[in-house]
């Protein structure tokens, strides 16, 4: 499936009838099984329904960093992002892409 950012935001956990999605580098993961982390009130709820690539790379929960932009990230930050991506791949199914 392909999602625009406006469509992806609908999967942010506020509607209990919908799954919770988080994107990394444009790939959308179904993180519903991690609802306690990504659902409303969860420690990572700010990532739900968005591409959180930059925030994950920077290990940041700052709203300004919850963006797909990788501009200006250091090599170390890109490595951190790759580690996150591998963790998500091992734990959550990929359901689509952000377009």
TrEMBL record:
GO terms for cellular component: endomembrane system; membrane. Keywords: Lipid-binding, Steroid-binding. Gene3D superfamilies: Cytochrome b5-like heme/steroid binding domain. One of its GO terms (molecular function) is steroid binding. Residues 3-99 form the Cytochrome b5 heme-binding domain. The keyword Phosphoprotein does not apply. Belongs to the cytochrome b5 family. MAPR subfamily. This is Cytochrome b5 heme-binding domain-containing protein. The lineage of its organism: Eukaryota, Viridiplantae, Streptophyta, Embryophyta, Tracheophyta.
